[in-house]
Hints:
- By secondary structure, this protein is an alpha+beta fold.
- Helices cover 40% and strands 13% of the residues.
- Helix 6 packs antiparallel against helix 7, helix 6 (193-206) packs parallel to helix 8 (238-254) and helix 7 packs parallel to helix 9.
Amino acid sequence: MDGEDPLREEKSRLCPSCRMQISALAVKCRYCGEEVGKPKLEQRTLSINDLGGESIYHRAPAGSVTEALEAFRVEAGLGIDGVGQPPDASEGAGVSAPGIGPDGMPVLDDDPLGERSGSAWYSAITSVHKARPPTFRERLKTVGIIVGGIVLLVLLGVKAPGWIEDYRLSRAGAVVPTFVDDTERMLREGYPPIDALAEAVRAVAYEDSASHRSSRKNALEKLIEQVEGLLYAKPFDSENLRKAQGLITRARNLYLCHATIELAETVQNDTKIYGMILIKIDQANFVATFQANNSELMEAEKGGVLAGRFRVHSVTKHSVTLIDQERGNRVVRCKVGDGPISLPG
Length: 345
């Protein structure tokens, strides 16, 4: 219309999704239904009335595309002097570099960053995001921190209860109890050596000091003396052998050492040898046959040696008299169907 103001002519723009012509003031495309957003100043569609010339439309990229490109440039560090600077489109007489448009922006094609072409710009972009692997020194430092933390936690777990208890007692005004070794007193006052040894073992466990080890040694010597006294007792009594076996078993459980092991073997050997039984007597030849506790048969005649330690003193119709050469020539007698019994030495 001739009288209509040309400035009132409705401005238009392209939908960024379907590229159809829509109103510049539209917020949703009437063709594809996509949200197009409010128009920005750089997105205005200029008409012939704005530019003064033929009716030619100069369209700017949609807002979403412009924002995406700008965010990409900021993230990649483009436009910063010396790092990741895209080629200047104004140089080279208007000739754009591969992948770069006349306006200096990347061309949105199937290879937007020139990855396949191996451009320097793409290399600069990718190098920004490549993570540097940790060095050996950094890894060693990390391992040291972890191990140190574990050791610290273990030490705290072991020491913390004692520290807490000491602090609690100190705050309460109490004296922290100390261990008193009564081994020597028990030995002086005639306590059983096995009880004194138990006290000495507890003292060494509390504090492995020279004095506590000395008390343990004294108690062990007293115990060995007691056990050997039972083994050499005259006359022989099987009850003494049972007592000796009980004492050395307990001593070995309290304090396992060479002395307790050796003494336990000695007691065990005596228990076995004194467990033999006289099963028959050859009256014609005066030969006695014994059966050991392991069912082994042993023969002995008058004047001979039985089991490597008993000298056969006499052989009668009903009994055999033996002398134990390893136990101070202690005299024992065995009847048929029975084991050794005591006789006065």
